Amino acid sequence: MPAGGGSGAPAAPSRVAAGRGSARPGPMGSEGRGAGGSRGRRPSDPAGAVDRFTPAYQLVTLRTPDGPLRARTDPTAVQAPGRRPMTFASRARPASRPGPVRRFVRAYGWRAYAVPVLTVVTFVCVLDVANSTADPSQPGARPAADAPAGIASPGTSATPDPRPRPTGIYVDAPSSGASRPLPSAALPAGAPYSQRGGGRFDVVPGTSRVAGTGPLRRYTVEIEAGVAEDGPAFATAVERTLGDPHSWGAGGRLSFQRVDSGPADFRVSLASPMTVRKVCGYTLPFETSCYNGDLGRAVINDARWVRGAVAYGRAVGAYRQYVINHEVGHALGNGHQPCPRAGALAPVMMQQTLGLQTAGVGTCRPNAWPYP
Question: Is 115 a member of any domain?
């Protein structure tokens, strides 16, 4: 018993130790390293297998032999020796230096845009002013300082037009054939006249009967404030002239009536020479009268009303009849006419204020009436 018992008891621990030694490695024993002699590798693991207990950061190789990992169009392709790997960063262009325009804009901000715009606008304004300033040497031109707003250039039609002209200025000018030698066009010597007025036209109170039997034309008579003329006397002269049977209503062609209120077809206004220059222009260095179609006003120059014209000599009254008929004729749509033949009566629409001679035709005789 003891021998049998003694020989059997030690055998069991020995098997247990052998079993434990093969199942669990010792700290330093050869049994613990396994067949390959590597730590943590089992005898049954194939050669080169990664141990499960290796730290996680060792499972991925973070660098390649030629540098950091980069994205490639073909990851399996082999890079040529010495060739730089293609990356997005290698395709980026280096920052270029800004040009002079961009540097100017960055330096001055909004002023860089405002300065060119203001330059262009200034140039356009200067060009417009230059174009609108007429050359005084050209017929029909007038200085910009004397040109009223909304007034058209003078009309110089050589043939009468039966229709009224709604716009345009008729002013005595040499462009329609009348010669203007200085002795004929100059203002004769005589009584003083009002050189400058107040610029306001006042209607002379009073009305008249209808003169004539044709289509009716109503008109007002006005005098500029500051002109030292008798308003009622001027209005009476206009009435008598337009009511004369030799005037524009001859033979039942038209009839005229003076009014001081309500609608009027035209206005007959006596004005100072400086106002005439503003309303009519000053294309000639002589005092003339005009009709301003934009204003519907036949403007009689006070200098001529007082002194007349060289062509009429001392007959200032006859000249006054002429100038009324002439300017009202423009209001009725008639243009300037030349002398038809030497020695004939001058047409009332001839510029008799400047003279009675037409180049290449001859000299006419003074005439104040449309139908003498």
Answer: no
